[in-house]
Amino acid sequence: MLRDLVDFMRVLAGKIARRPIALCDVGDPDGVISCALFLRKYRNAVIILRAPAQVVRSRWLKMFTWDFVADLPCPPGSRVKMRADHHKTNPPCAEKECYDPSAPCAAVLAAKLLGLENDEHVKKIVSIAIESDTANIVTQEAKLIDLAVRYSGYRTKLRLVKLLAEVDVSEVLRDEKVSKAIERGLEAERIMSNIVNTLPSREIITLYFPKAKEFKISYRQLNIKIQKEKNAKFINILTRRGFRTYRLYCGADKDGPYDCTQIVTKLGGGGHKFAAGAQYKAPLLKPGKGLDIFINVLKEYLKINKVELYVVKSGPVIERVEV
Ligand SMILES: [Mn+2]
Questions:
Q1: Which residue from 26, 102, 180, 323 lies 20 to 30 Å from 163 (Cα-Cα)?
Q2: How crowded is the C-beta side of 220, counted as CA atoms within 13 Å?
Q3: Are the C-beta atoms of 34 and 110 separated by less than 8 Å?
């Protein structure tokens, strides 16, 4: 709420000063790097970062004409001049599009759209976005930038956009705020390893976190880790975020038979076949129903009547149940 007010004022002030405005995905390096590319080209740009669901719901984002949107849908009903995206669920919506659902990330499309493909620094940061967005992180720099983005607060993310636009990656990583975020990320990785190591190897793995906020981990990262280390082909992690609010992280093998969009669209979410998410609310009088809602969608899709569920409680302590 406060962030919306602050960002609204930043955009308004930017519009008055005739500065370009850009909107990118807040959740991963692809969005952050896409906006860094825009800022590299237009040094006076105002950068706003949001999650896809926030863009769809926002009441103020649509009030402005956006010069650049990346890795996100257009704010419904808004005018967007340029957009770079690769999400199957976000069809073209801007005046000038660089849209390709087969692209490895939005940043590679953004570089093309902005005419920056030959800039060596751009090539470097785009390659980090590719490594991150295809869940195939091989370089140490990509690993650290990925951690920095995922474990930063909003202000540090904006700082990352600015740093990535201006200075070499090694210098970005030396920044004090950025290094602190990386440290938090490394701690989270230790917790995630703990959880993954106690799970069995299965084709389908389903997890439930009744108190998601207790663990300062990235559930998207956890999903990728399970897929890799347990050879799983279809992983669903349901988290309870609050009294009625649930968030699902679905991951599937790229060449496997499972399609995450089939699950998340039934819960009001979106994404790719191999990585998608949904946030939804349980009925007010049955706040615990959120788990049943998801389990029923999963059973219907897989055509099964029992789900092997791993419930992760404080510790982490993992309990196996059949539901
Ligand atoms: Mn992306």
A1: 102
A2: 19
A3: yes
Please tell me the distance between residue 31's alpha carbon and the centre of ligand 1 in angstroms: 6
Beta bridge partner(s), residue 317: 313
* Structural domains of the chain sorted by starting position, each given as residue range(s) with its CATH number in brackets: 2-181 (3.90.1640), 199-322 (3.10.310.30)
- Residues 188-208: pLDDT tens digits? 999 999 999 999 999 999 999
Q: How far away, in angstroms, is 286 Cα from ligand 1 center?
A: 35
CA–centroid distance, 303 to ligand 1, in Å, is 31
Q: Tokens for 130?
A: 């590719």
Q: Exposed (0-12), middle (13-18) or buried (19+): which is 320, by Cβ within 10 Å? A: exposed
What SS3 state is found at 237?
A: strand
Q: State CA 255 to chain mean position distance.
A: 21
**Cα gap 196→194, rounded to integer Å:** 6
If pLDDT is split at 50, 70 and 90, which confidence band does 209 have?
A: very high
Which residues line ion ligand 1, judged by CB < 5 Å? 30, 71, 105-106, 133
> What pLDDT, in 10s, does the model give residues 73-126?
999 999 999 999 999 989 999 999 999 999 999 999 999 999 999 999 999 999
Ligand 1 center–CA 203 separation, angstroms: 26
What whole-number distance in Å separates Cα of residue 173 and Cα of residue 160?
Answer: 9
Rounded CA-CA distance 30/35 in Å is 9
Q: Are 177 and 156 in contact (CB under 8 A)?
A: yes
First to last CA, the chain: 37
Task: Express each pLDDT in 4-38 by its tens digit.
Answer: 999 999 999 999 999 999 999 999 999 999 999 99
